[in-house]
Amino acid sequence: MTVSETLKKEGNSFFAEGDYVSALVKYTEAICANGAQPILYSNRAATFLKLESWENAVLDCERGLNLLTDESNETIKLKLLWRKSIGLRELQRLHEAFEVIQIALKINPNSEYLKNEYSLISQKLKAANSISNTKESSSDQENGEDIIDIEITEVDKIPDEFYTKDGVSTENAKSNIDSYEKVESSTSTIKSRMNDSHDFPMNPSLQYLLSLQDRFKTDLVSCNEYLVKLPVEAYRNIFAVSGIDPEVLNMFLKACIALLEQHKLEYKGEITEKLKLFKTLPRFSLTSVFVDSGLIDQLSKLFRDRLGEDFMSYW
Question: How far apart are CA 61 and CA 96, in angstroms?
């Protein structure tokens, strides 16, 4: 048994016990050991769904789907599509969720759990269209015409709680968020400085931040400054419930290193402000495990030599 298979097995055990945070750790370690297995992303996506980290679940499903080959197990593909649909539905991206579940049903039109998900999305789309039509009395009521009615039935094979938020507590996450003292920063100054960058959004999505990994290759300086200048509220809006994404955290730390190495000490306040926020977000102690130790060593030295501070006090 390979290292990744052993870790996956351990993750499965934790998942079955309802210890989703530990399962998340094991699946992430398995991905680090062998990131070419779609099933690992599928399993981690299921864990993210249990933790109500909808966007991370969707992203993992997309990663898994991109790794599929013609020889890949059809069941894995269906589970990735199904879980992606659930994540999109919870994010209220209903039309995208509807398209995804239709793709899955074309592969296996007899799947009860896929038909159940299709029904849930159809119901939500109809409700959304009904509200829209009520507000717009002159509407032609074209929305929803293509939605197919399917009787919603109970499916014994799929736990009810998988479709709901029951049993998944975010109380600790919310208390962590509430405990963070909001910093009254000079928003207008930040905005004016942000506008100097090249078409970087002030309120990005997680998917946009992750896409910066490709842009770094051609616009390194602007990307570094963008990540550091981005207002605290923008990070809070994305990561308040799910916690900071490991890849985004690594990019941010690399940006800090680049700026401090260039003696751009004027960014000290913005760097430390974000680090204070990240530390209060849910599961930060877990996420920090996956940060390259080399980055921590570099920042510790730069904070000491350039800023006269202890980096670990922010970590």
Answer: 14
